[in-house]
Write a structure and sequence with these properties.
86 residues, 3 helices, 3 strands
């Protein structure tokens, strides 16, 4: 069973979320973003209300970005290694 401090630290770090969008130039892209609860709810609200995002970093720490609508093998490997190192 994890101790109290590790649970608090984990909650403060947030979750890794896959974000998909279209850039200002019209290109599909995706990003892995570490978001805390507040940032995640902002992302979800903006999506539901179709509010344009001014900067992806508004939703948290951008860990990885790539072009396209779906993460490629390199992105999936990055995420697997990142999560393993946590």
């Amino acid at each position: 069973m994890p101790n109290f401090a590790s649970v608090i630290k984990q909650k403060a770090q947030g979750s890794v979320v896959l974000y998909r969008a279209v850039s200002r130039e019209g290109n599909d892209f995706y990003a892995y973003i570490r978001s805390n609860e507040k940032q995640y709810h902002k992302m979800k609200h903006d999506f539901m209300t179709r509010t344009p995002c001014k900067a992806v970093s508004d939703y948290g720490d951008v860990l990885y970005t790539g072009l396209g609508t779906e993460p490629d093998e390199q992105a999936k490997e990055f995420l697997a290694e990142y999560l393993k190192s946590m």
